[in-house]
Amino acid sequence: MNKSSQCFDSMEKRQYRSFEELFRLYFPRMQRYACYLLRDSDEADDLVQDVFLQLWRDQDLLDRDKNVSSYLFTILRNRCLNVLKKRIVEDRYRLHETSVRADELYHTSFEKEGEFISFDELLYQEVLGLISEMPEKCGIAFRLKWIEGKKIREIAEIMDISVSMVDKHLSRGLTLAKRKLDPALFLLLVIPSVQ
């Protein structure tokens, strides 16, 4: 019987000295292994200590015929993999947040005497101004489509007109918008509707 098996067997009696010997025997190797996988010595120390804590708590459930070294390193490897998976999720979230922030910054305007206005807000204001210049039914159809996000059939039902008339009103409104809006704002208006 090797030294680690003897330590493991005597742990059954909860002899702290035997557990301490097992800890001293495996901790340095396990710490190096975890540090190699995680590239973080503090986190590696924490995980190795957690593995030994689990060993202490679950010693009554363990099979005495199993190799202690394999058991410890398997638990440690799995915990390291869980940490790495968590890091990947966190990195993806941070990347997404950075992308959102960059997108917000890209779609920001500092017009009107240094006031901070998003392109969406600027577009909304411009579209409301355009609607006020349109004929009544054209303005209603345009508002329902581009501000409220209604589908053409819904607009036809609301206005009690045919789908082809809704198309004509929207076409007339888009022609006016194309003439009066800044090209970037016009693209912001029509591109989401294509999706």
TrEMBL record:
Alphabetized Pfam families for the sequence: Sigma70_r2 (PF04542), Sigma70_r4_2 (PF08281)
Molecular function GO terms recorded: DNA binding; sigma factor activity
Annotated ranges, domain RNA polymerase sigma factor 70 region 4 type: 125-174
Keyword Transcription: yes
SUPFAM superfamilies: Sigma2 domain of RNA polymerase sigma factors, Sigma3 and sigma4 domains of RNA polymerase sigma factors
InterPro entries for this protein: RNA_pol_sigma-70-like, RNA_pol_sigma-70_dom, RNA_pol_sigma70_bacteroid, RNA_pol_sigma70_r2, RNA_pol_sigma70_r4_t2, RNA_pol_sigma_r2, RNA_pol_sigma_r3/r4-like, WH-like_DNA-bd_sf
Example of a GO biological process term: DNA-templated transcription initiation
Tagged with keyword Phosphoprotein: no
Domain RNA polymerase sigma-70 region positions: 22-87
Keywords: Sigma factor, Transcription, Transcription regulation
Domain of life: Bacteria
Family, per entry: Belongs to the sigma-70 factor family. ECF subfamily.
Protein name in UniProt: RNA polymerase sigma-70 factor
Source organism per UniProt: Gaoshiqia sediminis
